[in-house]
Design goal:
heterodimer, A: 524 residues, mainly alpha, 3% strand, B: mainly alpha, globular, EC 7.1.1.- (chain B), NADH dehydrogenase (quinone) (non-electrogenic) activity (chain B), transmembrane (chain B)
Amino acid sequence: MIDINESVMQFLLAFVVVGPLLGAVAALLPAPPGLKGKSPEQAVLRHGVTVTGAILVAALVLALGFDHHHASKMQATTDISWIPALDVRIHLGIDGISLPLLVLTALLTFLCALYSYFKPPAGGSPKAFVALLLLLESGTLATFAVLDLLLFFLAFEMVLIPMYFLIARWGGEGRTRAAWKFILFTLLGSVVMLLGLLLIGIKAGTFDMVALATDNGRSLSTSVQVIAVLAIGIGLAVKTPMWPLHSWLPDAHTAAPTVGSVLLAGVLLKMGTYGFVRILLPIAPHGFHTFAPYLAAFAVVGIIYGSLACLALARHGAKGDLKRLIAYSSVGHMGFVLLGIATMTPTGVNGALFANIAHGLITGLLFFLVGALKDRTGSTDLDTLAEETGAALYGKAPRLGGLLAFAAVASLGLPGLAGFWGEMLALFGAFKPAADLSRPAFLTFMAIGAFGTLLTAAYMLIVVRRVCMGGVEQEAPKLADVHGYEFAAWTPLVALTVVAGLWPRALLGLTDPAVHQLLAGGTR
Amino acid sequence: MSAQPVAESLVQSVDWLAVAPPTIAAAVGLVVLVADLFLPEARKNVLGWTSVAGLASAALLLLPLLDGDRSTFCVNGATRACSYTADHFTLVIQFLVLGGALLAALLSVTNLKDDERRVPPGEFWFLLLSSAAGAALLPASRDLATLIVALEVASLPAFALVGIRHGDKRSSEAALKFFLSSVTATAVSLMGISFVYASTGTLYLTQVAQRLTHVDGQLHTLAQVGVVLTLIGFAFKTAAVPFHFWVPDTYVGAPLPVAAYLSVVGKAVGFSGLILVTVVAFPSYADVWGPALAALAALTMTVGNAAALRQQATRAYSAVRLLAWSSVGQAGYLLVPIAAAGYAKDPQKAIGSTVAYALMYAAVNLGAFAVAALVGRGRALNRISDYRGLYATNPLTALLLAFFLLCLAGLPPGVIGLFAKVTVFSAAVDAGLGWLAVVMAVNVVIALFYYLQWTALLFRAPEGEPARHRVPAPLTAALALTGVLGVALSGAPQLVLRFAATGLF
């Protein structure tokens, strides 16, 4: 949109990746004179806001300077040799696929830091909290910005330790177990993924993603591709998470602090689906082709399974936890993303990428809202909240209730909001999958997936009815309505949900050329 | 008339510079032993610093050899063969051994001061330096006799070091266990060497390699048995399963710096010997030792990690026990590339992965031991639960230990640990040992569990009265050295990983 010097762009991208890392180190040091603030705690939380804010600004400038007419071209690229022995290069760059995810990550982390500034998390010291948050941000941003397979793996692993500590120290009930489950599942997946990445790198002779994508699997035999896709796919599927490898997610979400949940759902899950699109689709197309029907099958099972689990949790007397419910709904939503990718068509993959972003915005918002609800009522248990008639949030705290209803409706995919387009495009893709995939199979998947949207609508509406509606007794204490800082943290998410719903072109225009290029094999 | 050529072949000219590193270590050892007799009780700590200086100068003397083209003690027959070669492989391992011994010596300075009455300093330093000299000689040996002599010079003082504490029953029991099992292994190894000698008629590794390819049909079985038996002695030193049972008791019984020394230098001795006999002497028998080592590697890492996983945090000496078992697990990873060398087209590259991994392991494992030595000063039982809340009292030490443990686990921010594992994985994948790579992957996850559990404990709220440790200067030096090494390597992994890309011989 605006013309920015290429070397400035390079610097900005490098800054976006390295900045949070330096910020994390700085957070551990004592505050310099002049920045001490009211107390050490306040100073370090403010440091977090400042750093994430700076990163957000840099990401936005990157988005502005990004050449939207050539969205399929890698931009702001840096390519330096780092470990010649392993042929690892510090290769950074963004295209239409990674840019939205980069901005989403920077935005959500900034909002989380802002939210934590006004509402410091209960548990350990804020110093460590901010450092871990920034480390997490650096890892996720690096995942979306790097173009080298081993560097991708490094970034992928980098988020594990901070997330583990965020859950294990600032989490709620059952946090230790949940944190262990999270890290062991994802690590087991990612070491298998490493083997797949090494196989590709050794057989193809390079770890460079751009070179490999341009090669489009021509230098890899089909059997190598099949093994590599299986190994890498398992690692990514654990992270996404794909049914039946999802069982770490509900526990992690239930135990994680609000900010942890928001980042886990909003950003960390995207690393898995991003890997599918960035690595598997272009680099090992034949291998992916072999597994595409199975991936789609698992995806629709995940859609139905997630919805049914949510319905069961939303039932009266099921003692369903709201955070757990949203976690299961994530399994369903990520099912749509995977279905879109498995179609191997531009429509499906575009839909998947759109649903990715939409899920990050909407589920991030939902977790914020549920966290706020927990702060006010002390519980996320649906039965405790709703009692006999319903929690009557509309009566007690109308704005909070309204926002919750908005997020729920967006999540079920109401046309006009962000949730709609991604799922519709993914189903569209399944209607007409890539030429050599079995069409009848995908038509069946499409039908099942479409049924899943109905189930999603059912449980979301049940939740709205039980939490937002109900009779208010006269003497019932009013709940504090939305605070100013909460508005500040949530408004961007609400606004973007509406914008993406009404003007999908803004996002699809970015992803579409890049997706076409990926599917066509790097060069077009 | 003919006297001169005869004399020339009998009296060899010795390249003293090439043999300087092990020689200096041995000579300083003798100096310390003699000086001990004349020094008054109050000034015994001079001995420690002399030894540290000796090891440092031995390591510095590697610098003029960097070209890696020197060899000495050669015979000029039909084919030239040398007993001592200072090639790049030798230099890297010597650096590892002398550096490891130096760090162990730094830990010992404090340890001896704390344990003044029970450990005789003169003997201790002499034994440590002799063992280091043997360990430095071993990677340079290029004939089977020198190899076995070096192995013994490295291990015999180690037995005594383990049992050096007067009046400590556990210590002497550990020493006896270590001694008996080690001697058996060496005897088996010697028998193997004699078989190899019987079937080839030479002890020089390069000549063995040539002649093994056309051994008389009748002697074929003999040669094969010889190869396998020779390997056993070295497998013992690396503490590969099933030759590992001495490790935990020995580590717990020995003074902590000695355990640190054994975990790094002892292992280096074992695997450099293994590399020499497999890749240099017996390449034609790769189909025998390749699968054997692969099985050994898989077994070693699985048993080591499973046992480390079972350590209870509240048991006495659990921290040292855990480090001991984890070192068994790590030995398994070290064996993977050597096994892969049996399958690979380019065995040298695979060997480089072992060397790179060993360098990483040496730095961070010694660092972890340094922290254990520090904590052990305040809490003699050295339980893992004693590390709870270390961050609250000694933030820097706790961060360092966390970093070392994550390096051992192979997770960021321990970048070097991660990439060292990547090279090992890639050696296995490259050689087509997919199953071994998968076994190792599972092991990495198991190992992560206990490393991370320990790491998490460091940052918990402390229980009871927090004990502040004052860090003595030698320990600070050891911590700083390992810490700087770890961080520098994480920033520039190429420093060690380059060995994985080039031939070392």
